[in-house]
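Provenance

Sequences were taken from public entries as deposited. Structures were produced by running a predictor on each sequence independently, with no templates supplied. The record for Trehalose-6-phosphate hydrolase from Enterobacter cloacae is shown for reference.
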Amino acid sequence: MRAELKKVCEFWADRGVDGLRLDVINLISKDQAFPNDDIGDGRRFYTDGPRIHEYLQEMSRDVFTPRNLMTVGEMSSTSLENCQQYASLDGASCR
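Predicted structure for Trehalose-6-phosphate hydrolase:
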């Protein structure tokens, strides 16, 4: 899935776009055990998953930074603390 997401971003970058909006991008990392949520709606298992920052750093390194793309990421059901990590000024996550 990450490889396909990269291809989509590269497709548009190759056609001259300067930036991309990444809709609910914080949902691309999930607990691979796919546990049931007996006390809620499952958000705690599919939002801000265990490898989300690793995946976004990979996208930044491989796609966004080399093409100087501006990105806007919509974050569904996340916390203020997580938003601060996503928007880090050093560009270590999603740029």
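Residues 2-86 form one domain.
The CA atoms of residues 81 and 87 lie 10 Å apart.
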